Amino acid sequence: VLKRPEYFGKFGKIHKVVINNSTSYAGSQGPSASAYVTYIRSEDALRAIQCVNNVVVDGRTLKASLGTTKYCSYFLKNMQCPKPDCMYLHELGDEAASFTKEEMQ
What we know:
single chain; alpha+beta; two-stranded antiparallel ribbon; 6 strands; Nucleotide-bd_a/b_plait_sf; RRM_euk-type
């Protein structure tokens, strides 16, 4: 449903959507759920974030931000990844966009 043009599909071609239905997190607005939308093109993801972040729907404020991408464990072991749809990096990322855990905190 979230890939449809009336939702996140209007910002660009989506590679993957993962929904976390766990409502164990209860912020100031009460229990919430999360959706992780991965676009084919980074500029489409940025446009979606700009259009969706802090928008109020049914009295609830939506939050949107860039996620993080990790290296494929096969890549780190200098091995061929057997997963054709693997979402992790298989080459070194841009140095300017790379951070350690400590730098992110």
